[in-house]
Design goal:
By secondary structure, the protein is mostly beta strands. It has 1 helix and 7 strands; from the N terminus they run βββββαββ. It has a single domain, classed as Nucleoside Triphosphate Pyrophosphohydrolase, CATH 3.90.79. Strands 1, 2, 5, 6 and 7 form a 5-stranded mixed sheet that branches. It has a two-stranded antiparallel ribbon with strand order 3-4.
Length: 96
């Protein structure tokens, strides 16, 4: 079984947490599900470096990345996902 390692951010501003809905997919088990911003770790990157890059690419933000919050391993029908999640406080709201 293929193994995928990713990073994700729990982005918090005041009492709000950002969670994005995936696009429709041919894979029913991920289609239109909600997820935290993040992505795959590239070769040579630390987890924090990968998350900083992903947040810059996806949301054009460069927040301070706090320590690891939790790592979750989940087995999907065709791959195993290891997600390293970081808690990130935002100083301003990024979406309206």
């Amino acid at each position: 079984m293929k193994k995928v390692e990713v990073v994700a951010a729990i982005l918090k501003y005041d009492d709000e947490i950002l969670c994005a809905q995936r696009a429709e997919s041919r894979l029913e088990y991920i289609s239109k599900k909600f997820e935290f911003p993040g992505g795959k770790i590239e070769n040579g990157e630390t987890k924090k470096e990968a998350l900083k890059r992903e947040l810059d690419e996806e949301l054009s933000i460069n927040p301070e990345i706090n320590d690891l919050y939790i790592t979750v391993v989940h087995e999907y029908p065709d791959f195993e996902l290891t997600m390293h999640t970081f808690y990130v406080m935002l100083l301003q709201r990024i979406l309206h």
